[in-house]
Amino acid sequence: MNEIRFRLEISAQEYLRYYQGEVDTVRVRTVDGRIIEFPANALQKHISQSGISGSFRLVFDDNNKMVSMERVAN
């Protein structure tokens, strides 16, 4: 398994675009400078009243298919 780490800041208002299906993918810059995309629905369990904020780890398999995404300590 492989992993990528990134930081994400999305306000609750901005997240509505993802929730309502207006935007279906998230594009982020990883800590090592790469730009990746993943399905917006992967964020659902990380949403709070203020939005989504924090450092995350995305785990993917050898076929580059997402396995999991979790919040990590900075």
Write the layout of secondary structure elements.
Blueprint: E1 2-11, H1 12-19, E2 25-29, E3 35-39, E4 51-60, E5 66-72
Antiparallel strand pairs: 1-4, 2-3, 4-5
Write a structural description.
- 11% of the residues lie in helices and 50% in strands.
- The protein is mainly β.
- It has a single domain, classed as OB fold (Dihydrolipoamide Acetyltransferase, E2P) (Beta Barrel), CATH 2.40.50.
- The chain is globular, with a radius of gyration of 12 Å.
- The model has no long low-confidence stretch (mean pLDDT 91).
β-sheet strand percentage:
over 45%
Order of helices and strands: EHEEEE
What is the percent of helical residues? Answer: 10-25%
How would the global form be characterised?
globular
Euclidean distance between termini CA atoms: 21 Å
Which CATH class is shown? Mainly Beta
Number of beta strands = 5
Number of helices: 1
Largest beta sheet: strand ordering: 1-4-5
What are its keywords?
74 residues, three-stranded antiparallel sheet, two-stranded antiparallel ribbon, 5 strands, globular
